[in-house]
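#struct-pred
JK: can someone run the complex with cobalt (II) ion? inputs below
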Amino acid sequence: MSRFYKQVFENNEKWIAGKLAADPEYFKKLAYGQHPEFLYIGCSDSRVTAEDLMGVEPGQVFVHRNIANLVVPTDNNVNAVIQFAVEQLKVKHIVVCGHYGCGGVKAALHPHDMGQLNSWLQTLRDVYRFHMDELEGIPTEEARFNRLVELNVLEQCINVIKVDHVQRSWYNTGYPLVHGWVFDIKTGRLTDLRLNMEAESRNIRKIYDLRPSSNPG
Ligand code: CO
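RT: done, structure tokens with the ligand placed:
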């Protein structure tokens, strides 16, 4: 057993002691239930941790992470997370958070065989394909890489808006609001890409309006 492995359990004991010192009822309250206002969909990258970068406590964010923060319509996992967050937790915000320096996005910039990852990264390569004119007009590779990170976040936000549960709830209650963020590992700064949910919904409504009332006949 590695030293680091044992360290985790020692860290856990210290964390419990610290929480109880600040509030003896801490775990009693935590066990009572969760009412997170946010669903955070981010990258699995070990350097990009939702709660730390948002400065929030356990119980405040419902989290889903995968390689390159993708929202793939056939992914049962992300679909279940979104449905639960919207229908049961009634989150007010769904955030897709990408990050500069993302290894998944970088892999999609260079065509080569990635084995198991090929089908996963196809969603990213499609983002490149949708925005090829803009991306190939960018002179440096670093700037192109950064822009693909941002465009991927925006495309995944659109994928969230397409989800039937999200559409129904948004039309009926005004929530959840969908946001695109980018985290910069070099500075720690979080940027809101200011996605216009109203405009994006309008753009896709013609082919993605899944509300029951919109069905013909
Ligand atoms: Co990443």
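RT: quick notes.
The CA atoms of residues 202 and 209 lie 9 Å apart.
Residues 1-32 form one domain.
JK: thanks, will look after standup
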